[in-house]
Design brief:
Layout lengths: L1 E6 L5 H12 L5 E6 L11 H9 L16 H4 L2 E4 L2 H9 L4 H6 E3 L20 H23 L1
Parallel strand pairs: 1-2, 1-3, 3-4
The protein binds 4-nitrophenyl phosphate (4NP).
Length: about 150
């Protein structure tokens, strides 16, 4: 099973989602992340995201931002989008229904709200990053259960 987490810049939310998910799934799973913009390409995650993950014993400092590619839609089985704008952008890059079916909103699995979004912590503070971490942790647990059931 190959899972791709996608946000806007691939320096805050999706690197955290990648790091969290990697701690939860079996070794034969492949988890990666990407952004819809290439502005931060090659950069390590935001230092607040790195610190927040480290507070929970997860090291995401070696990740590098990259934009989503055409090949990702063939490589990955599941593509989880952090918010509705990201989802719209990702869906617009799909080339057929099979690829479209791989794409969903990350928080949809929690079922609390059809359009639930992971808030962008980029303009916020460490408290916002911790809240995002908690949300992502719940979402990753639910996704894991769904995939493994
Ligand atoms: P992310 O957060 O999508 O969770 O990585 C952001 C990162 C960068 C920007 C916005 C959001 N930015 O405007 O550069």
């Amino acid at each position: 099973m190959k899972i791709l987490m996608v946000c806007l810049g691939n320096i805050c939310r999706s690197p955290l989602a990648e790091g969290i998910m990697k701690t939860k799934v079996p070794g034969n799973f492949f988890v990666d992340s990407a952004g819809t913009i290439s502005m931060h390409e090659g950069e390590h995650p935001d230092k607040r995201a790195v610190q927040t993950a480290a507070n929970h014993g997860i090291n995401i400092s070696n990740q590098r931002s990259r934009p989503i590619t055409k090949a990702d839609f063939d490589t990955f089985d599941k593509i989880y989008c952090m918010d509705i704008d990201v989802m719209a952008d990702v869906v617009s890059k799909t080339r057929n229904e099979e690829q479209r079916q791989k794409v969903s909103l990350f928080l949809e699995v929690l079922g609390d709200h059809e359009n639930a979004e992971v808030p962008d912590p980029y303009w916020g503070d460490m408290k916002n990053f911790e809240e995002v971490f908690q949300l992502l942790d719940r979402g990753c647990d639910a996704i894991k259960s769904q995939i493994l059931s």
